[in-house]
Amino acid sequence: MFLCGCFAPFPSHFESLSLPLQLFCVSLWSFCISSWCVCVSSNLFRAAAEAGPHHILKMYNTNGSVVNISPLLEANSEDSYYRLEVVASNLKSELNWLLHYLESKVNEDLGKTPTIISDMKSQVESFKRKLESVEHLSWMGLFKEDSDHQLSKLSPKPKTSQLSVHEEHQQVRREFLNMSTLQVTEEVREHLKTPIFDNWQWEDAEMLVLLQVMFTDLEFLTAFHIELDVLQNFLFKVYCHYNSIPFHNFRHCFCVTQMMYGLIWLTDLRSKIARIDLLIMLTSALCHDLDHPGYNNVYQINAQTDLALRYNDISPLENHHCAVAFGIMSKQECNILKNLTCEQYKYIRGGMIKCILATDMARHNEILNKFKTMRPVFNFTNKEHKEVLMNIMVKVSDISNEARPMAVAEPWLDCLLQEFFNQSDTEKLKGLPVTPFMDRDKVSKPSSQTNFIRFVLLPLFSELTKLFPCLEQHILEPVRRALEYYSDLERASKEEERTAKRRRRSGRPKHEEEEEEEEEERTAKA
Question: pTM of this prediction?
Answer without folding.
Answer: 0.72
